[in-house]
Amino acid sequence: MKPTMALIGRPNVGKSTLFNRILGRRQAIVEDFPGVTRDRHYAESEHAGRAFVVVDTGGFDPESDDAMLALMAEQVEVALAEADALILVMDGREGLTGTDRAIFEQVRRSGRRCYLTINKIDVPSSEPLVADFYSLGVEELFPITAERGSGVAELLERVLEDLDAPPALDESADEEKGPCRLAIVGRPNVGKSTFSNTLLGSERYLTSDVPGTTRDSIDTAFSAEGREYVLVDTAGVRRRKRVEVGIERMSVARTLQAIDRSHVVALVIDASEGLTDQDKKLGALVLDRGRGLVLVANKWDLVAGKETGEAFVKRLRDEAPFLSFVPHVLLSAKTGRSCHRFLPIVDRVHANLFRRISTSELNRFYEEVVKTHPPHASGTRSVRIKYLVQVDVNPPVVLLYRGGTGLLPTSYLRFLTREIRSRWDYEGVPLVLAPK
Known about the structure:
Blueprint: E1 4-8, H1 15-23, E2 41-47, E3 50-56, H2 67-82, E4 85-91, H3 98-110, E5 114-119, E6 142-143, H4 152-163, E7 180-186, H5 192-200, E8 218-224, E9 227-233, H6 247-261, E10 264-270, H7 277-288, E11 292-298, H8 309-319, E12 328-330, H9 342-353, H10 359-370, E13 383-392, E14 397-404, H11 410-423, E15 432-435
Parallel strand pairs: 1-3, 1-4, 4-5, 5-6, 7-9, 7-10, 10-11, 11-12, 14-15
Antiparallel strand pairs: 2-3, 8-9, 13-14
């Protein structure tokens, strides 16, 4: 089993920068003011042939009365309980603070293995700053510069040696048989994090009535009914003109990356508000990027009794015909009502994403549909379809080999798409027909 190391410390000491340095990519949002990282942020990595899990945590200030910092402290407490080793990151330029001492005392009392890391020791002249931290009564300190990477390899080698981390294995297994990557997206404050916590059965993500509580896209592996999933809770996406520069813009970019990395996307909307223009744009974006889509109408408990589920779904499909093949789930993340219906639908959409139509079935479809209803090009140019073949999955792609000098009309491609969907189950999945 891969050991887990958690990065802890007060706000703005460089934990997320170290997290990114360990991973070798910018996964956590990094910005030069406190409170940017709020949730626990997990990622798998390897170093010198050894595999491990690293956790980035929110800034921890045991003495703060700030409500958000208190929520962040709860997340750190969970990380303390889960981790095999703790890396306490402190700022060498600022020196040892009272908060650093308080955090160290709390860690020492927990009995967890802890490695004291002094960040921002980037020039030889700053090395004497490390001496101040020996007053904590430890024998070994690890001076590093997370931004440039100096000292990080030595820190990791020591931690992984103490934890006896297993060798890294090639995990490039068949993507279809691997975990289903499930992204949760939507506008701010529609209940995405509450829904994620309900699925996981724990308070994994921070929840608050304040829009924008979630800023990063956080990956969490979990299993249900023998099926493996990787859940990605994302920051809320507002209309472009309302997105503020800096952190929020980076959060939106991470949300788009999370969509690209997922198999199935759950678009969470507020049932009491209905389908907004921003919801429609997000749905179109997910389908354009080739991801499976499930529409989750959260807060259904506020609507039930005023409108039937059938009427609500019909209204949504009338407002957004391009989402007509997308399954809907009406639920309440807060009460748990109907949440059990969600994952079976995700499984079905995931299976459809990798569905292949055999050549013999496509040949039969060609004889019964294409030959019976051939395309007609405009003007004097002719066009015909010679045969069809599915060339890819995730998303499914069907090539249409054509003859003649004309182009296939868009209306005819829509016709073929409807016919294919009527014969094969591609619910929730974009179907790509590519003339060649």
